[in-house]
Amino acid sequence: MATAGRRVLVGRIVGLYGVQGWLKIESWTEPRTRIFDYQPWLLGAAPGELSEMAGVTGRPQGKGLICHLPGVDDRDTAAALVGLDIHVAREQLPPPGRDEYYWVDLEGLEVTTTEGVVLGRVSHLFATGANDVVVVRDGERERLIPFVQGVYVRSVDLSGGRMVVDWDPEF
């Protein structure tokens, strides 16, 4: 499945820091400071409203991260950005390791059982304390399938656009 043009949510602007336009951010990258390596950032509240921001600088500050965006040099300008999501182009991320996947690459895959029954397509995923969960929708129903490779998820074929699961279609 092609990843061209796809965006990955990597963080969020969560607050203000000081009076010179610095912002507090939440990062979902590993390690968390890697968010500064992926540029330009695409900032916005909705995917269709993203604006590109290159040249972002930042650093750890206490238990969090702070950043400075070019052209944002006062607290009032920075305040308008609080709450915006930070996206990057999927192509900026390093290739995943063997049997590892970025969630954005799994979204849209057709999901079939080991017996060939089509369950629908991957809508999205979410994390739980134990494992990630794949949300599969077919228009009529929604299924929550644990993303446990080798147990429930038998194979993932990104180029073929398909995921095979060991799952009861009635469940």
Task: Describe what this molecule looks like in 3D.
- It is a single chain.
- The longest helix has 5 residues, at 75-79.
- The protein has helices spanning 75-79, 103-106, and strands spanning 7-17, 22-27, 41-44, 51-53, 57-61, 64-68, 85-89, 110-113, 118-127, 132-137, 142-146, 153-157, 162-165.
- Helices cover 5% and strands 43% of the residues.
- The protein is elongated and about 60 Å long.
- The strands form 2 sheets. A 7-stranded antiparallel sheet has the order 4-3-7-1-2-6-5. Strands 11-10-9-8-13-12 form a 6-stranded mixed sheet.
- It is mainly β.
- The protein is built from 2 helices and 13 strands, in the order ββββββαβαββββββ.
Describe how the helices and strands are arranged:
Elements: E1 7-17, E2 22-27, E3 41-44, E4 51-53, E5 57-61, E6 64-68, H1 75-79, E7 85-89, H2 103-106, E8 110-113, E9 118-127, E10 132-137, E11 142-146, E12 153-157, E13 162-165
Parallel strand pairs: 8-13
Antiparallel strand pairs: 1-2, 1-7, 2-6, 3-4, 3-7, 5-6, 8-9, 9-10, 10-11, 12-13
